[in-house]
């Protein structure tokens, strides 16, 4: 009896499938957007001839310039920190950039544990 062949991508884990799925989804979204643009230009050509097609293309270009490219709503930004985040509602905000220290009191004023009073 022969053993069934092992899946060559089995050791890749779930991340490999998620990446391939995301690439397929993005390709489908881009294809739908291109189809909508092309159908708008074709509708302009049917209704107004060459001038209608040119006007439809110009309007689509202006829309992209004004609104910018489509944003992926599912992009998640991850930020890592070596320690726990502070509570700015009770501690305020203290930042040091290039040797310049900046401190802001918590909302509502008052003083905090580190000796800063309301300013």
Which structural traits does this protein have?
119 residues; mainly alpha; two-stranded antiparallel sheet; elongated
**Regions with little confidence, pLDDT below 50 for 5+ residues:** none
Structural shape = elongated
Arithmetic mean pLDDT = 76
**Number of helical stretches of at least 4 residues:** 2
Largest sheet, in brief, is: 2 strands, antiparallel
Structural class call reads mainly alpha
Strand content: 5-15%
Summary of the model, kept short:
By secondary structure, the protein is mainly α. The chain has helices at residues 14-67, 88-91, and strands spanning 93-97, 100-104.
Topology:
Layout (H helix, E strand, L loop, with lengths): L13 H54 L20 H4 L1 E5 L2 E5 L15
Antiparallel strand pairs: 1-2
Explain the overall architecture:
There is one protein chain. This protein has 119 residues and is mostly helical. It has a domain at 11-67. The protein is built from 2 helices and 2 strands; from the N terminus they run ααββ. A two-stranded antiparallel sheet has the order 1-2. The longest helix is centred in the middle third of the chain and has 54 residues, at 14-67. It starts with 13 loop residues before the first helix and ends in a 15-residue tail after the last strand.
């Amino acid at each position: 009896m022969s053993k069934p062949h092992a899946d060559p991508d089995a050791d890749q884990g779930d991340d490999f499938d998620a990446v391939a799925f995301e690439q397929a989804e993005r390709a489908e979204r881009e294809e739908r957007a291109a189809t909508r643009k092309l159908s708008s230009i074709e509708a302009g050509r049917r209704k107004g001839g060459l001038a209608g097609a040119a006007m439809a293309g110009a309007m689509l270009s202006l829309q992209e310039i004004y609104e910018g490219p489509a944003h992926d709503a599912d992009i998640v930004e991850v930020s890592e920190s070596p320690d726990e985040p502070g509570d700015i509602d009770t501690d305020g905000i203290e930042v040091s950039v290039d040797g310049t220290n900046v401190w802001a009191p918590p909302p509502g004023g008052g003083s905090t544990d580190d000796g800063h009073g309301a300013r």
